[in-house]
Design goal:
The chain has about 425 residues and is of the alpha+beta class. The protein folds into two domains: about 5-345, Alpha-Beta Plaits; about 350-405, no CATH class. About 20% of the residues lie in helices and about 20% in strands. It is built from eleven helices and 19 strands. Strand 18 and strand 19 (about 400-405) form a beta hairpin. It starts with a strand and ends in a 16-residue tail after the last strand. The structure holds iron/sulfur cluster (3 copies). One iron/sulfur cluster binds near residues 48, 178, 242 and 260.
Length: about 425
């Protein structure tokens, strides 16, 4: 089997095809500290792409309550169990979190879904370790919504010390998900028809509807369960990365790349999507002023979802601050502790970049910070902190300014006649 460099694992790994990389790669960062599970993203996708007969069970974008929720139900628990069986010595990471772009999280010593599949699966029509969810598991996208971990509560009584940072005793969090448009897509690797392809211009992973025969190998193989089978057409479908918007061919976009529907609809302002440049080995090319590059590779606050699966997902998450670290390390890898430390004590640049989320539906290609006056001096988490009212300016693909915003959000005072109105 050919070898490919997977920088998220810090090593070469086996993949059924020679590695090939797009000109730019579709990627996104979700700051799930801010998600309120309003499901606006979910509905934006549903009402755009999956409102037809036979797509009733299809939620290309979904938001599930962790740890108990999941769509399809138990998707990650089941995949982790398979990986655990394939890695009897544990899913071990070695080395250290570092500035080396080829192994920023150290090295994953266990087997990925590609490597484990080779050892355990027969015949070779099954190339990737996975499983096919049951029909029932696709039925309940909101199961266990808002169900916390912790002691059983009493009616109308708050837990006295259940909610204290750094880790809450009673906790849950919302995990927003779409297809990760993986660098090494398991869906693509598993398709016996070669019906799945990665677009060379933006790395969006699509299923050729004419070539697909509905064998559901992609559904079985995708460890994130983001490829879905449509019973009435007998063809599989998945998130299309809203490619007309990304291309700038949507009538609303005026020829400029726009963020997808689920990103643009986000009420919590936690989603940012972009297009990043790659090196010949699949690592990210240094683009110091691209906000995604900054969040993933400089500030290192945004981490891949289940990197140990081995698909090199292009979805990155700022982990929720209040959740037990062991759980987060399993979900986001060894980068969790430094990421949370940095997020809880942001420097001047990180504070500015965090303001870029959801001020515009245009894709941001670079940013610039203009320094402003000191507006606050005090203490945060036991450390001294100074806040400056810097201005951050976002630029599009054409190098023109999209918008500018400040750290200090303006305060609007409602006129007296509107005090009690919306
Ligand atoms: S998340 Fe799943 S469906 Fe999407 S590209 Fe990766 S393997 Fe394929
Ligand atoms: S990128 Fe587009 S198609 Fe994909 S989940 Fe978001 S809205 Fe749906
Ligand atoms: S729209 Fe944003 S805040 Fe609302 S559920 Fe989706 S990710 Fe969370």
């Amino acid at each position: 089997m050919p070898k490919a460099h997977n920088w998220q694992l810090g090593r070469e790994m086996e993949f059924p095809y020679e590695a090939g990389f797009p000109k730019r790669q579709f990627a996104f960062v979700f700051n799930i500290n801010r998600c309120l599970a309003c499901q606006s993203c979910t509905m934006a996708c549903k009402s755009t792409w999956t409102f037809s007969k036979g797509q009733e069970h299809m939620w290309w974008a979904n938001v599930e309550t962790k740890p108990y929720g999941g769509y399809p139900q138990w998707w990650d628990v089941k995949t982790l169990k398979l990986l655990e069986e394939a890695n009897p010595d544990g899913q071990i990471w070695s080395g250290k979190v570092s500035d080396d772009p080829k192994q920023p999280y150290g090295q994953f010593a266990g087997k990925t879904v590609f490597e484990a599949g080779q050892k355990t699966l027969k015949p070779d029509s099954a190339r990737v370790l996975g499983y096919l969810p049951t029909d029932e598991e696709w039925n309940l996208p909101n199961i266990y919504e808002d169900n916390p971990v912790g002691e059983k509560g009493a009616k109308n009584v708050y837990h006295r010390d259940g909610a204290q940072l750094p880790v809450h005793k009673t906790w849950f969090f919302y995990l927003a998900r779409i297809c990760n448009h993986c660098t090494y897509p398991a869906c693509l690797a598993a398709c016996p028809r070669k019906a799945i392809y990665k677009r060379p211009e933006d790395g969006i992973v699509l299923i050729n509807q004419k070539e697909c025969r509905g064998y559901r190998k992609c559904v079985e193989a995708c460890p994130y369960k983001k490829s879905m089978y449509r019973g009435n057409t007998r063809i599989s479908e998945k998130c299309v990365g809203c490619y007309p918007r990304v291309e700038g061919s949507d009538p609303e976009s005026n020829g400029q790349p726009m963020e997808t529907r689920c990103m643009a609809a986000c009420i919590g302002q936690l989603r940012m999507q972009g297009l990043v440049l790659l090196n010949p080995d699949g690592t990210w090319k240094e683009e110091r002023k691209n906000p995604l590059y900054y969040l993933v590779h400089v500030a290192k606050v945004a981490l891949p979802l289940y990197p140990q699966f081995g698909t090199a997902p292009n979805g990155y998450y700022i982990p929720p601050r209040w959740v037990p670290r062991e759980y987060l390390r399993q979900m986001f890898g060894p980068g969790v502790d430094p990421a949370l430390e940095r997020y809880a004590n942001p420097d001047r640049e990180l504070l500015a970049v965090l303001q870029l989320f959801r001020r515009s539906a245009r894709i941001i290609f670079s940013y610039e910070i203009q320094e402003g006056p000191k507006v606050y001096e005090g203490e945060l988490n036991g450390k001294p902190v100074t806040i400056y009212n810097d201005t951050v300016i976002a630029y599009g693909q054409d190098g023109k300014e999209i918008f500018r915003t400040t750290i200090d959000e303006p305060v609007y005072v409602r006129p007296a006649q509107h005090v009690n109105s919306l």
